C-alpha cells in the first residue's frame, strides 16, 4: 500500500517526531511504500495568495477560489502545490499527524489544505441538479482512498470525553474529519489520539507503540467513520438538510452519522 504521511511539528526531537519515526519504520518493514511531507522541514508556505498562480493577471483582484481554479486548469500552479497533489494521487492512505493546538491543527497544516486543495482538484466539480449537488461528501477525487488523523494532546483523555470540559474529541475533530477529509471523498478512519503527552515515560511510549502498531496493521480493515453520503438520499437537494424522517430526534454533528438503528 502507498501511504503518505503529512506531518506538522517543528521539533524533530519531540514525542511527535519519535512517533513519526516509529510509524515510518513499522510501515516500511510491513512492506508498505511510504512518503512523508514534513511541513516544517520543508518550510512549507502556509498562506494561500496570488503567488500560487504563476501566470495570473496582477492587475485583477485576487480571488482565492477562482485563482486556484485557473492555476489548476492552466497548469500554472506553484510547483510545491503540484508536488503535494501528485503525492495525494499516488497515495492509497494518508495519515495526517499533528499536535492539537488551540483545538485544531497547527496553522502550517491548515495552510497545506488551503493551498493543495485547489478548485478542480479537491472541490468544485460534478453535476449540480435536483438530485446531485456536486461530487463531495463521500464522492470526489479522493474516493477510494483512506485517511486517518494521528493527534497528540496535552490534556487528559477525560478532558475530551462526552462530558469533558474541552468537549468530546470526536466533536472537536468533526470539521477536519467531515469537512476536510470526507468532503473530497476520503474514507475517514477513526483517529489515533495520544493524550497527556507531557507525561510520557519510556514505559508509556512502548504502550503507545504497541497500540499504534495495531492500528497501522489494520488500516485496510478498520471500518471508517460512518458519515452519510451527501448524494445518497439522506439529504434534501439543493437545501442539503437531512430529510425529516432521518433520525428526527438528533441534531448537530451526530445527525450526520449513519447507524444501523437509524430511523428512516
Automatic annotation (TrEMBL):
One of its GO terms (molecular function) is NAD(P)H dehydrogenase (quinone) activity. GO terms for cellular component: cytosol. The keyword Glycoprotein does not apply. Its EC number is 1.6.5.2. Residues 1-215 form the Flavodoxin-like fold domain. Pfam families: Flavodoxin_2. The keyword NAD does not apply. Keywords: Oxidoreductase. This is Glutathione-regulated potassium-efflux system ancillary protein KefF.
Amino acid at each position: 500500500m502507498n501511504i503518505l504521511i503529512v506531518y506538522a511539528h517543528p521539533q524533530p526531537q519531540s514525542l511527535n517526531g519519535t512517533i513519526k519515526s516509529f510509524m515510518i519504520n513499522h510501515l516500511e518493514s510491513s512492506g508498505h511504500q511510504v512518503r512523508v511531507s514534513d511541513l516544517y522541514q520543508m518550510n512549507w508556505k502556509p498562506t494561500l495568495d496570488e503567488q500560487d498562480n504563476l501566470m495570473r493577471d496582477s492587475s485583477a483582484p485576487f480571488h482565492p477560489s477562482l485563482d486556484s481554479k485557473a492555476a489548476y486548469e492552466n497548469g500554472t500552479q506553484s510547483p510545491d502545490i503540484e508536488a503535494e497533489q501528485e503525492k495525494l494521487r499516488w497515495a492509497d492512505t494518508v495519515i495526517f499527524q499533528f499536535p492539537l493546538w488551540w483545538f485544531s491543527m497547527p496553522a502550517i497544516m491548515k495552510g497545506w489544505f488551503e493551498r493543495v486543495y485547489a478548485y478542480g482538484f479537491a472541490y468544485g466539480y460534478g453535476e449540480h441538479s435536483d438530485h446531485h449537488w456536486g461530487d463531495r461528501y463521500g464522492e470526489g477525487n479522493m474516493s477510494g482512498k483512506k485517511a486517518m488523523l494521528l493527534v497528540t494532546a496535552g490534556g487528559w483523555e477525560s478532558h475530551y470525553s462526552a462530558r469533558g470540559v474541552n468537549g468530546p474529541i470526536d466533536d472537536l475533530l468533526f470539521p477536519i474529519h467531515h469537512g476536510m477529509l470526507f468532503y473530497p471523498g476520503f474514507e475517514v478512519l477513526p483517529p489515533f489520539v495520544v493524550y497527556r503527552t507531557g507525561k510520557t515515560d519510556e514505559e508509556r511510549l512502548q504502550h503507545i507503540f504497541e497500540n499504534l502498531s495495531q492500528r497501522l496493521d489494520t488500516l485496510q480493515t478498520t471500518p471508517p467513520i460512518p458519515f452519510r453520503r451527501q448524494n445518497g438520499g439522506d439529504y434534501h437537494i439543493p437545501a442539503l438538510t437531512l430529510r425529516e424522517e432521518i433520525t428526527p430526534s438528533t441534531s448537530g454533528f451526530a445527525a450526520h452519522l449513519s447507524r444501523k438503528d437509524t430511523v428512516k
